Amino acid sequence: MKRLLLALSFAIFPLQALSAELVMVEQAGCHWCAKWNEEISHIYPKTDEGKRVPLRRVDLRDLPDGIAFSSPPVFTPTFVLVED
């Protein structure tokens, strides 16, 4: 999970827009979602990246209408960087 956070840091750091968010697609019973919750969820909002690009959680079975995915997420967790 530390590698994932590091990868996210490099992917998010150059963003200048304040209207971006990191969407985490999750579902009940997902082992890796549970690991994220256990190891990273409390750290992410405290990071520079988390302050600039807040995390929004959505359920795989109830995707929001306001986000147009180029292809629907299949696996969880799936992280999608959304602007505007």
Question: How would you sum up this structure, described in words?
Answer:
The chain is α+β, with helices and mostly antiparallel strands and 84 residues long. 30% of the residues lie in helices and 21% in strands. It contains three helices and three strands; from the N terminus they run H-E-H-H-E-E. It has helices at residues 2-12, 31-39, 48-52, and strands at residues 20-26, 55-59, 78-83. Strands 2-1-3 form a three-stranded mixed sheet, with no helix packed on it. 8% of the residues are buried. The mean pLDDT is 84.
Mean pLDDT: 84
Low-confidence stretches: none
Q: Over the alpha carbons, how many angstroms does the gyration radius reach?
A: 12 Å
Order of helices and strands: HEHHEE
* Distance between the first and last residues' Cα: 27 Å
Shape: flat
By DSSP, the count of extended strands is 3
Percent of residues in helical segments?
A: 25-40%
Structural class: alpha+beta
Strand line-up of the largest beta sheet: 2-1-3
How many DSSP helices? 3
Describe the largest sheet: 3 strands, mixed
Strand content: 15-25%
